[in-house]
Amino acid sequence: MSTFRTLDSLPDVHGKVALVRVDFNVPMNEGSVSDCTRIQASAPTILELADAGAKVLLLTHFGRPGGERHSTLSTSVIQGAVAQVLGHEVMFISELSGPVVEQSLGIFGPGGIGLLDNTRFWPGEEANDPEFARAIAANGDLYVNDAFSAAHRAHATTEGLAHLLPAYAGRAMQAELEALDKALGNPDPPVAAVVGGAKVSTKLAVLEHLVARVDHLIIGGGMANTFLAARGVAIGKSLAEHDLAAKAEAIMAAAEAAGCTVHLPYDVVVAKAFAAYPPSRRTCNVHEVAADEMILDVGPQAVESLADVLKTCRTLVWNGPLGAFETPPFDAATVALARTAAALTREGSLVSVAGGGDTVAALNHAGAAEDFSYVSTAGGAFLEWMEGRELPGVTALRGMAY
After folding, report:
1. Is the residue at 395 inside a domain?
2. N or C: which end of the chain has fewer CB within 10 A?
């Protein structure tokens, strides 16, 4: 994107110190990293800088230590995993600034990589303390942000440093920003959005933002039940937020005014108990849900109709499953529609961008994630982007220091 400097515009960085903000807040199991996805995501940026002869200092938060040191939350525990993914020796540095960092830089030469300790050990990180940021910047020549997933936080290492040093978007950040721009910034119309999940309350701002920007809004999950109830449909024991009926009606009115078609399921899969393959499950018209039944998935006819909608679209944004996908057979609608979107993307007729924790799991479960144009692993940052909010870490890159 033209408003961001990327690594393509880097000057000669041989011997220069690159402060690189990554998100290595990785899951652990019995003291070992159990999923290296986030480390792998930033590996191209780190290695590109190291190969160019930069001295690379990695900045990351890890857990929520609350401004105090905890041995179990030191980044020293992930040092081995980082070195293994990078295929490169990585020095652990127990500070973020000052003489310890300066001395460490003297030890390793151009192309060396250092992992600084947990940024959240210092209260100045989350407070975005300018003095704290200046102390970190004092050992650096340039700043690279490769952590979109932390870009919704205005912290010293995600936002503050970008005002103090020449700032660049790393390769993972660049890919994310370019994908998001294609999805909602400057999308190829018609645009469809799938928004699912349990509660409307967590996605109200998303829905309000989307209705003016997409042509088709497909609502699934427990959220759809709230909209159906607002329309006077009897939904039995289904999960719903009845107190949000007026909000749901307002969103549908705003969609109508904007020329956005809202798609709610007209056939559904119901059961009397929420369990895997309950004997009481059946598919019925949405107006035939019994008082002792709950809606747990979108029905096959509605999914077929939604697939036809996607075939008319050029762009798709997806956040949240259509049903209770963790419990079979209530994963059927999510799997079917995800595979349709994946096939359309494969054949080149659809740009598909998805994000959010449950979404990634659902698309992986459907075997569709690899065929989507882009799948974001950023939870909170992706959701705030869908709400149309400014992300401090991204905005800071837009007003980069020179």
Report:
1. no
2. C
Q: Which pLDDT band holds residue 399 (cuts at 50, 70, 90)?
A: low
Indicate if the pLDDT at residue 206 is higher than 70: yes
Is 380 assigned a catalytic role? Answer: yes
| Average confidence score pLDDT of the chain | 94
Residues 77 and 226 in one domain: no
Query: Which residue of the set 5, 21, 38, 55 is catalytic?
Result: 38
Within this chain, do residues 248 and 217 fall inside the same structural domain, yes or no?
yes
Domain containing 107 equals: 7-172
Number of C-beta neighbours around residue 44 at 10 A: 15
Distance CA 254, CA 252 (A): 5
Is residue 314 within 8 A of residue 350, CB to CB? The reply is yes
Residue 45 placed within a domain: yes
Active site residue 357: yes
DSSP per position, 266-319: SEEEEESS-SSS-TT-EEEEGGG--TT-EEEEE-HHHHHHHHHHHHT-SEEEEE
Q: 3-state DSSP call for residue 14?
A: coil
For residue 393, is it within any domain?
A: no
Torsional class of 133: left (φ above 0), alpha (ψ -120 to 50), beta (otherwise): alpha
CA distances from 7 to 3, 17, 24, 159, 397 (A): 13, 14, 20, 18, 13
Q: Which amino acid is present at 56?
A: V
Report the CATH number at residue 377.
3.40.50.1260
Confidence band, pLDDT 50/70/90 cuts, at residue 226: very high
Same domain, 151 and 291: no
Tally of domains in the chain: 2
Does 347 lie in the same domain as 203? Answer: yes
Question: Are 154 and 216 within one domain?
Answer: no
User: What pLDDT is stored for residue 388 in this prediction?
Assistant: 85
List 63, 380, 388, 398, catalytic entry:
380
Could you tell me if 340 and 322 are in contact, meaning their C-beta atoms sit under 8 angstroms apart?
no
Q: Name the pTM for this structure.
A: 0.86
Q: Are residues 130 and 232 in the same domain?
A: no
Same domain, 137 and 160: yes
Read off the pLDDT of each residue in 146-169 and give the average, rounded to a whole number.
95
Q: What pLDDT does residue 402 have?
A: 36
Residues 365, 331: contact at Cβ < 8 Å?
Answer: yes
Q: Which of 134, 199, 282, 339 is catalytic?
A: 199
- Percent of the chain scoring above 90 in pLDDT: 83
Beta strands 191-195 and 315-319, pairing class: parallel
